[in-house]
Amino acid sequence: MKIVILGLSITSSWGNGHATTYRSLSKGLHKRGHEVVFMERDVYWYASNRDMPDPEFCRIVLYNSVEQLKQHIYEIQSADCVILGSYVPDGIEIGELIIANASGTKAFYDIDTPVTLAALAGGKCSYISPSLIPKFDIYLSFSGGPCLEIFEKKYGSPASRQLFCSVDPELYFPAYSEKKWDLGYLGTYSDDRQPVLNELLVEPARKWPRGNFIVAGPQYPVSLTWPENVKRIEHLPPALHNDFYNAQRFTLNVTRSDMVRMGYSPSVRLFEAAACAIPVISDWWEGIDTIFKPDSEIFISKSNEDTLRILVKTSENQRTRAGENARQVVLENHTGEQRASELEDYISESIQRRKRIAHVNAPV
Predict the structure, then answer these.
(1) Which residues have C-beta within 8 Å of that of residue 241, sequence separation ≥ 6?
(2) pLDDT in tens, 40-97
(3) Using one digit for the tens of pLDDT, what is the confidence trace for 229-262?
(4) 36, 190, 271, 306 - which has most CB atoms within 10 Å?
């Protein structure tokens, strides 16, 4: 198939988690024989931080306005499937453009599902609207669980389907290098995550001065103060992620508050670390135990005391076993090729559904 994706970014991972997800999915689709075209708004903050300007697994089309996008309308018209992603600038206008021109399967991929639901409820969503949702054949969601029913029953989606983030096992794998850090964290700053990061990493660092900690990610306020045993790295490009994870005894996963409330919303960092066989310490949210089994595949922390207990009391055998178990789960269920296969099934299901509807509505 020819699959066209209009997403936030695939060329730059700076300050967003969308790029690594699109890269993994697109590479998986390419490996399964599909042609992938990725259409991306050309904005200066990504243009100056492009760490993958020309992927070998997809063709890039950059545009700087909806009018310029219309010059590439053939890409949309000739596609077997067109996917619009969340947070795309002028997303609602582009969505209507897709609906009016695409003859193949039309899908919306929500990489920010809980945020989207909150914005829709408040009438403030800039990239998808309640009237647009039923026009897409499939609503792909980064979150599973009860939100899928909300999109179908409340917003009229013909089919809302789970499509979690994924990881590329060729980029994330065990390196068995020296462990420099007892606990590390990789993530862009956000107001809602920072209190949890403080509780689960910063406070344990203060209480355990002999421990070594590291936090990597952009946009942290300069006013923040860190304990001396917490190293800070600004932007860490994906090419360095594997080394970053493999230098840790444990890595920390902290979830956005909207995603905690919704549940069933694993982050890409969770799968990346697990693919490296680095055991994850995570905050708790509904559904995490349906992805990884607590204690044997993941460690759950609800306080700084929990984090310290895990760091200090976990035996080396238990630590390494948990990491290896989690890696096996990822390889079996959460790779880019696995997501590509799931997407194929959803597209096939949509085609069959449209055929049934056309048959029912056909003149006698």
Answers:
(1) 171, 172, 186, 272
(2) 999 988 988 899 999 999 999 999 999 999 999 999 999 999 999 999 999 999 999 9
(3) 999 998 888 889 999 999 999 999 999 888 898 8
(4) 271
B/e letters for 211-240, b = 16+ CB within 10 Å, e = fewer, are bbbbbbbeebeeeeeebebbeeeeebebee
Q: Which amino acid is at 303?
A: S
Measured CA to CA, the distance from residue 208 to residue 213 in angstroms comes to 10
pTM over 0.85: yes
Q: Which pairs from 291-300 meet CB under 8 Å and 24+ separation?
A: 291/266, 291/329, 292/326, 292/329, 293/325, 295/322, 296/321, 296/322, 296/325, 297/322, 297/325, 297/326, 297/329, 298/274, 298/322, 298/326, 299/250
